[in-house]
Design goal:
Layout lengths: L5 E5 L3 H14 L4 E6 L2 H11 L5 E5 L1 E2 L2 E2 L1 H6 L6 E5 L5 H4 L4 E6 L4 H17 L7 H12 L6 E6 L2 E6 L3 E7 L2 E6 L4 E4 L3 H7 L5 E3 L4 E4 L3 E6 L5 E5 L7 E3 L4 H8 L4
Length: about 260
Amino acid sequence: MSLALKVLIIEDETPAAEKLERYLNKLDPAIEVLEKIGTVREAVRWLQANQTGIDLIFMDIQLHDGSSFQIFQQVDVQKPVIFITAYDDFALEAFKVNSIDYLLKPISFTDLSHSLKKLESLRSQLRWDPSKSEQIIKTLTESAVKNFKTRFMVKLGDHIRSITTDQISFFYADGRDVYLVTTLLRKFIIDYTLEGLEEVLDHKVFYRLNRSYIVNISAIQDVVVYSNSRLKITLTVKWENEIIVSREKVGDFKEWFDGLH
């Protein structure tokens, strides 16, 4: 990902703001955080003077001196906003303004990456022009409210059944086929790729371990340090094939497993 964004962070919790900045730098060292602000008053003053110089705003909803929605009452915010909050009560209100996404704390690296990929995709399609920011905001806002799949339709002979995600232990790819495996170890071919599943599954519950497996966190019985700094996964269901977390995913997997995603 190469965005080279100039970013404003409006967040009154210093550790949260610093963590967000670290994640942004990890995503793309070219992303520049111009300022970290902790109050409505300071945000209004800063935006009135500097808004043209930024590309994206990260905004906590509850600040020391009020709600960040008060900022929109005092400034004509022209830039896309990603809200980051500990509460999910304000989602509808957030999308009435320039919100392109609504992330719940603790923010995860994966959540942040998905949000910025939306922006990256549109910048590429529109050949990024500041005059098109309203079009970008509109398009992103329309796509931002997303419901993850909660069930999958499968075929069993001449019958069709619906399997809820809490009944799914994992998905795996075998050649061109992708299988859904239930908690009762029943397998069904589904009409998805693993990449497609990543887009529709709740990534707080499901994780892509490697090229072949996406696992439900409730299906993980044990994690063991394996050779070459990799991790071996033992499932709650009996599965004979070895499941290894690829080396490049170990750090991200640990954050997800620890609830940081």
